[in-house]
Amino acid sequence: MFGLHYKLERNTIGFALAVIVVAGIGGFVEIAPLFTVDETVEEAPNMRVYTPLELAGRNIYIREGCYACHSQMIRTLRDEVERYGPYSLAVESKYDHPMLWGSKRTGPDIARLGGKYSDQWHVAHLNNPRDVVPESIMPSYAYLGRAELKANDLGLHLKAMRAVGVPYTDEMIANATSDTYGQAMPDSTFSSGLSKRYGDKTTVRDFDGVAGQVTEMDALVAYLQILGKLTDAAYSPVAKAED
Ligand code: HEC
Fold this sequence. Notes:
single chain, mainly alpha, Cytochrome Bc1 Complex, Chain D, domain 2, 2 domains, 12 helices, about 0% strand, binds heme C
């Protein structure tokens, strides 16, 4: 074995070829799983896309670095499934660009956070986590409630998402800004076409509890409330049977 290596090292071309073969094996092992991607990624025909308000909230989540402390990926381990709910499916991240699976949990996983708490809880928690969880070490984000949401460029953002495969329609793109206001201002005229475009289950609410203005807090809470709820594929009988 070492004799062969000794000889190979003295033969430049032979050694170069050997390096290519060995690196090729490594490359193949990395690429091979992609050949089965069609069978691995589940179908979720009823999955809806993020509304512009939720997408804006997602951008704030990224901007504030929440992913540094929170993962959005429940592993198939029993303790995780018991704590957080059904494990995450690949299809659930289908419209996430970039994905936010995360690699560190200073705080809990939030892949199935949607509906766990009320909007008021989230606002109180983001304003000052210690008010609702006395031992929390999470930073406070009270300024989000004072920052008016910038919504005039969200149509372009939807367009960019469409370029990477998210099925936003021309109508969704054209109405992005008014849909953003509509979702956070239930009494306004803006909200009329929202459920037609994004489905009946789209929540139209004043997420931050302050009427008359749409803030970054509205967007972030709307996003937190939709986590794990774009599709119910993880609760389908097939996924259950595998549990
Ligand atoms: C320095 C780490 C850290 C950062 C950054 C952070 N969090 Fe947290 N988060 C925590 C910890 C620790 C907890 C658990 C204690 C608590 O509930 O406050 C937590 C809890 C939460 C919970 C409650 C989860 C549950 O299931 O009970 C939510 C929601 C949350 N964080 C959202 C956010 C959002 C949104 C951001 C970004 C704006 C953020 N966090 C940034 C550490 C962090």
